[in-house]
Amino acid sequence: MVNFVEAQKPLLKRLMRMAGLRPIDVEIEPGTTMHIWVPKHHVSKKTGTISPVEHGGVGVDEKNGAARRGGRKKSPESKPNVVLIHGFAAEGIVTWQFNFGVLVSRYNLYIPDLLFFGKSTTASADRSPEFQARCVAAALARLGVARCDVVGFSYGGMVAFKLAETRPDLVRSLAVSGSVVTMTDAVNSATMTRLGATSSAELLMPETLKGLKALLSISMYKKMWFPDRFYKDYLKAMFNNRNERMELLQGLITSNMDAKIPTFQQKIMLIWGEEDKIFDIEVAKKMKEQLGDGCFLHGIPKAGHLLHVERPCAYNRQLQRFLAYVNSQPQEEAAGGGAN
What we know:
Blueprint: H1 4-18, E1 21-29, E2 32-39, E3 53-54, E4 58-60, E5 67-69, E6 81-85, H2 92-95, E7 108-112, E8 121-122, H3 129-142, E9 148-153, H4 155-166, E10 171-177, E11 183-184, H5 185-195, H6 200-204, H7 209-219, H8 228-238, H9 242-252, E12 253-254, E13 267-273, H10 281-291, E14 295-300, H11 307-310, H12 312-327, H13 331-334
Parallel strand pairs: 6-7, 6-9, 9-10, 10-13, 11-12, 13-14
Antiparallel strand pairs: 1-2, 2-7, 2-8, 3-4, 4-5
C-alpha cells in the first residue's frame, strides 16, 4: 500500500531539481556522511561528483586541481549563501518545502539533513548539537562555502546557534524560530511540565496515533483534521532511527550550572509564532534581552511552533527582509564578524 507521506518526496525532489538544486552525499570523516541539497554548480555534469567552489567565485577542477575564474559573466557562486537547518520531525526538503522557492533565485541554498535524518549517518557516538554543527561546517567547507547566513528551526535552531558560536568566521547572520540557545535542565523541565509530557522523547518521538495527534496539536495554532491513514503513514515515514534520535534528544540537555549565553558577533533575527506552545513568545522575548542589541524579534500572529508551515507567506516575507538587510551591509562590516 502506498505511503502518502513518502509519495510526496519524489514530487519535492523534482521541484528542488527544477529550482536548480541537486542532492549530494558529503563524507565528513570515515563513517560520517551528510546528505545535502546544493546549487547545481557544485555537481560536475560529467562525473556527477562534487565540484567545490572557492569563496569569491573561484572554482576548482577536481581532476587537475587547477583554478578557474568565471570572469566573463556573473557566476552563481557570487550570490550570497544561505543554509536552511531543519527541526526534529522531518528532514530538510520536507521541513522547508514551502520556503525554499522564494529564496532560490537570490541565494545559493544549502539544505542539509542532520545526522540520523534522511540519508545522513554517522558511526560516531557523539550526539551533541556541537557535533551536528561541526559536520554542517565540514560539509560546507568541502563545498568551498566560506561565508553564509544560517536559518534554523527548533532543533535545527540549536544547531544553528552552536554553529554561529563556534564558527563566527563562517556564519554571518542567524534567523531562528521555535528554538533556544541551549536546552538546559530547567528549560526542559518547565517545557515538559507545561505540555504535560514526561520527557522530550515522549513528546517528539511518538509511537502511537494518539501521541502524533497530540504533537501536531501543540505544534500548530489552527487545529487541522487529517485522516488516520495520514498519521499512520507519517509515523512510518518520519520517525525512523528511533534509538539514535532519542540519543540526540538526550545529548541536547545541558546542566543549568554549565549553561551560559554566548556573546554572538552576528546579527540574529528571531521569527516567532505568537501562539507557539512549545517555546512560547515569552521565551523569545527573554532570549532577545539576553542576546543584546544585535538580536531582533518578529512575532507572527495566529501561528504556532510550525509557523513556516502554517503561515509560510508571513514567515517568508520576514525572512526575506532580514536576509536582504544583512546582505546589503558593507562587505568590510560583513567580513568583520557578522555584526553588520
